[in-house]
């Protein structure tokens, strides 16, 4: 679809997506409750920190970090992999393919349209974080800091979205892509900074992490939110993140196009 | 408008015998077989035509429609729809066509149909004024007023089908593919649907292909039919000519004032049915006049009509023929 028409349709897509998100709010609350991993990790690491700080992390730092992780997860989460693979198996992807708008854009707006509701959850949590951990450990203290965070969370959202598209599209090539999605989730949990900050990895492993996409999905925006990086360092990490965004954007779109040729449009 | 040349669509399916051992084995080694859903068909359709796709279950009708709509990539052959190659899914192409499949819903499940209409307006970039006109028309023709404000999940099957069709027509497609549009509808709903589809075709000059197992749909809507059997084309032409070819005989339907003896009927023609108050005779076309004359003079006839054989029977005979022909061919292939 041409960019102009897409942009014209966007407000309506977002508005209707938002109505759908509101219709599904009960499911969303359950999902939010299911993503309490950072809170469990917070309890765990605070207990550890009671005996003395771990690296630069005392109890207050852990609080800032894991509440930020909770918020970043709310903002960047994506269920597109499951959605695509479900729609491929059910054949309902056909309905999207009949419309003159890129299905990928449609998936993206569906996820984006849910974000306002999520912000409503995130804001009080950030408030608590500021109150408990102190502002400088919870949120950026300068406008520039917020700007870097905005870039970081946008990049994180895109990487997560593209990885989801890629995983979902694999269901067009494989009988069961479920296993791969589970592997992805485990890698994400361990390598992204979701369960513990990536700086806890030993130096060698840490270098590997810098080269993998996961830490840019979670660790980086969390660090930017909690002010862990000086500007220069932040820009270097953001550059690496956006390189992943560009790379995954190209790869997932190409794989998607290839996959469509194999679509069997079950049912009817 | 539509041109199909030597179209083939073979699905690769993964064959696995039941059982755990087979399941484990299939992890390492997979056997694929090709299902020849569409196996070399060609036809042309002119703008504004209404064509019925007929054929037994599994014949390849839906598969053909999906290829025409750009959902499936053909395994072989050339397909164009108004100059577009469907599988490229160009924007201009997608704005011209629509495929409506019975169960597949484009309606948003938790929102009222009016929201889906609005969404389609935006996606198809339909000007506001035209949108309003189209919608008003659809709402009054399909009697949707009561429905479009209720969440889709609360609608009955038939109500949903009506809204589904309305959503599909918001952008006024020039080419409409309908896969069993009346399935599961009550009799009066079927009549409404048929009348509506016909009116849409006549008013907009849109080209229409529909599949249906209800012969009333076909009789009411499709001057031309294409019969597909096991992925191959077995008839393409007018519905009348098809009936003439398969069942040239006519039926003389008699209402009788009082019961008559079977012996009186048999000399007149082949007795299809015989009840106390009525009888149906099947006779060659050139014998119709004679039979009618004799019936009127020898029987207590109160009413008499001459009809074609019911379409259902014609189709069933055609499908049986195809089956017999294939069995014959299979026997010849086996060396004695
Ligand atoms: N996605 C698929 N994968 C494998 N085989 C398929 C697939 N879709 C259809 N088939 C097979 O292809 C053949 C044609 O199917 P199709 O759906 O086109 O039939 P149809 O003429 O629409 O039948 P019906 O009247 O029952 O709707 C059938 O034998 C079916 O089993
Ligand atoms: Mg079918």
TrEMBL record, chain A:
Keywords: Membrane, Transmembrane, Transmembrane helix. PANTHER family: SLR1174 PROTEIN, SLR1174 PROTEIN-RELATED. InterPro entries: ABC-2_transporter-like. It comes from the Bacteria. Signal peptide: none annotated. The lineage of its organism: Bacteria, Pseudomonadati, Myxococcota, Myxococcia, Myxococcales. It comes from Corallococcus aberystwythensis. The keyword Transmembrane helix applies. The chain crosses the membrane at residues 21-45, 65-84, 104-134, 146-174, 183-201, 234-256. This is ABC transporter permease.
TrEMBL record, chain B:
Residues 22-255 form the ABC transporter domain. PROSITE patterns: ABC_TRANSPORTER_2 (PS50893). The keyword ATP-binding applies. Gene3D superfamilies: P-loop containing nucleotide triphosphate hydrolases. Coiled coil: none annotated. Keywords: ATP-binding, Nucleotide-binding, Transport. The keyword Nucleotide-binding applies. One of its GO terms (molecular function) is ATP binding. It comes from the Bacteria. InterPro entries: AAA+_ATPase (IPR003593), ABC_transporter-like_ATP-bd (IPR003439), ABC_transporter_ATP-binding (IPR050763), P-loop_NTPase (IPR027417). It holds the Pfam family ABC_tran. This is ATP-binding cassette domain-containing protein.
């Amino acid at each position: 679809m041409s960019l102009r028409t897409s942009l014209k349709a966007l407000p309506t897509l977002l508005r209707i997506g938002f109505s759908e998100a509101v219709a599904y709010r009960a499911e969303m609350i359950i999902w939010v409750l299911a993503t309490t991993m950072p809170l469990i990790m917070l309890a765990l690491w605070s207990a550890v920190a009671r005996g003395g700080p771990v690296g630069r992390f005392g109890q207050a730092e852990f609080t800032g970090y894991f509440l930020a992780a909770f918020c970043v997860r709310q903002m960047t989460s994506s269920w597109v992999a499951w959605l695509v693979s479900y729609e491929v198996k059910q054949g309902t992807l056909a309905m999207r393919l009949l419309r003159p708008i890129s299905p990928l854009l449609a998936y993206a707006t569906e996820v984006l349209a849910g974000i306002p509701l999520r912000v409503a959850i995130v804001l009080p949590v950030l408030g608590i974080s500021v109150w408990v951990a102190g502002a400088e450990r919870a949120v950026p203290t300068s406008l520039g800091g917020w700007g870097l965070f905005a870039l970081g969370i946008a990049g994180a959202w895109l990487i997560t979205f593209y990885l989801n598209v890629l995983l979902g599209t694999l269901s067009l090539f494989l009988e069961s892509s479920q296993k791969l999605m589970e592997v992805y989730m485990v890698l994400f949990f361990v390598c992204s900074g979701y369960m513990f900050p990536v700086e806890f990895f030993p130096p060698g492993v840490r270098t590997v992490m810098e080269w993998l996409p996961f830490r840019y999905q979670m660790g980086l925006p969390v660090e930017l939110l909690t002010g862990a990086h000086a500007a220069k360092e932040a820009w270097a990490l953001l550059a690496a993140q956006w390189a992943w965004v560009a790379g995954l954007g190209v790869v997932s779109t190409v794989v998607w196009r290839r996959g469509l040729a194999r679509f069997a449009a079950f049912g009817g | 408008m539509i041109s199909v040349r030597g179209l083939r669509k073979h699905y690769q399916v993964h064959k696995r015998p039941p059982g755990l051992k087979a399941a484990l084995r299939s992890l390492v080694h997979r056997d694929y077989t090709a299902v020849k859903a569409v196996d070399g068909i060609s036809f042309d359709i002119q703008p504004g035509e209404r064509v019925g796709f007929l054929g037994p279950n599994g014949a390849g009708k839906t598969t053909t429609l999906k290829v025409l709509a750009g959902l499936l990539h053909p395994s072989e052959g050339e397909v164009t729809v108004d100059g577009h190659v469907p599988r490229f899914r160009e924007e201009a192409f997608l704005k011209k066509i629509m495929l409506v499949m019975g169960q597949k819903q484009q309606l948003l499940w938790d929102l009222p149909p009016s929201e889906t209409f609005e969404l389609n307006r935006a996606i198809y970039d339909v000007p506001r004024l035209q949108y309003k006109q189209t919608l008003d028309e659809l709402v009054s023709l399909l009697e949707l007023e009561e429905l479009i404000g209720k969440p889709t999940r609360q609608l009955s099957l038939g109500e949903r089908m009506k809204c589904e069709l309305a959503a599909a027509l918001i952008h006024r497609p020039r080419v409409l593919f309908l896969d069993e549009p009346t399935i599961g509808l009550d009799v009066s709903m079927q009549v409404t649907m048929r009348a509506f589809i016909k009116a849409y075709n006549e008013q907009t000059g849109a080209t229409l292909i529909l599949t249906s197992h209800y012969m009333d749909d076909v009789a009411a809507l499709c001057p031309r039919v294409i019969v597909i059997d096991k992925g191959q084309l077995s008839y393409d032409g007018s519905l009348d000519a098809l009936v003439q070819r398969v069942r040239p005989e006519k039926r003389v339907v008699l209402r009788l004032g009082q019961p008559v003896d079977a012996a009186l009927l048999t000399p007149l023609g082949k007795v299809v049915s015989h009840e106390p108050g009525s009888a149906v005779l099947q006779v060659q076309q050139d014998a119709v006049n004679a039979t009618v004359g004799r019936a009127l003079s020898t029987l207590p006839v109160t009413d008499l009509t001459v009809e074609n054989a019911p379409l259902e029977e014609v189709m069933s005979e055609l499908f049986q023929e195809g089956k017999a022909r294939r069995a014959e061919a299979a026997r010849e292939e086996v060396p004695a």
